[in-house]
Write a structure and sequence with these properties.
By secondary structure, the protein is α/β, with parallel strands linked by helices. The protein has helices at residues 17-26, 38-48, 60-67, 85-93, 100-106, 117-128, 140-147, 157-165, 193-205; strands spanning 49-52, 80-83, 112-116, 132-134, 151-153, 171-179, 182-189, 209-210, 226-227. The strands form 3 sheets. Strands 5-3-2-8-9 form a 5-stranded parallel β-sheet. A hairpin with a 2-residue loop joins strand 6 (171-179) and strand 7. Helix 8 packs across helix 9.
Length: 228
């Protein structure tokens, strides 16, 4: 399967040669770091990730529901998206679990891909709890953000205010067909902090959330858009 690789976004060209010369004179650029080859990156990932608990992100039921449905292709790619924690982990560790639409978004150099620091917090909590074991913590998150050209966004006071004021239900009902005439239904808690705070951040930023997690559906009444 073709690897999912984020490409750097194109920079706006200087309006004139003079402006270009002034920009270079005023702000000399350091030598650009060479990124690791795909082979060396894969080796680092395999050496770093020791063990991950099954369903570490609690999205197994969401994925069962997705797998039982036809997912239509995106008609238009968004200019910006906010990756949630499972999507970030899939991009890093198991890109084969990304949906077709997710790959379209992540492989498009014109799409700015954002990551909330709340996602890194959630990931770190999984590590502290022993659900996501890595062999070397030094620079772990920075390496991932740099490798895939992801931009981290902070949680502002406006996000916390939105977090408080969201009017969505604290749950979402989902169902899927296990086999013909055999429908399974369940209720997911959508009010936990990682889900609610990332939903609030996406709403403040005005961007969709790229996620397989159907708990975000609880926030559609607040205007949240999701992609998968």
């Amino acid at each position: 399967m073709e690897a999912t690789v984020r490409k750097p976004r194109k920079k706006k060209a200087a309006e004139s040669a003079a402006e270009s010369e002034i920009a270079v004179a005023e702000a000399p650029q350091p030598a650009k770091k060479k990124k690791a080859t795909q082979a060396s990156w894969d080796k680092w990932m395999k050496d770093t990730v020791v063990a991950v608990s099954p369903d570490v992100w609690n999205i197994h039921t969401s994925e069962l529901s997705h797998n039982s449905q036809f997912l239509s292709d995106l008609r238009k790619l968004p200019p910006r998206v906010l990756l949630d924690t499972p999507t970030l982990d899939y991009l890093f560790r198991c890109p084969d679990r990304l949906s077709h639409n997710a790959r379209l978004v992540l492989n498009e150099e014109g799409v700015e891909c954002l990551v909330s620091l709340e996602s890194l917090h959630e990931w770190a909590d999984k590590m502290r709890a022993g659900h996501y074991l890595i062999s070397n913590q030094t620079g772990f998150f920075d390496k991932i953000l740099d490798r895939f050209d992801l931009e981290s966004v902070t949680t502002t006071t406006e996000v916390y205010q939105k977090y408080i004021s969201l009017k969505a239900n604290s749950f979402v009902d989902i169902s899927w067909e296990r086999k013909p005439a055999d429908i399974i239904s369940t209720r997911l808690n959508a009010d936990e902090r990682p889900t609610r705070i990332i939903a609030a951040q996406a709403l403040v930023l005005g961007v969709p959330v790229l996620s397989p997690d159907l708990r975000y559906d609880a926030y559609k009444k607040d205007g949240l858009k999701t992609l998968w």
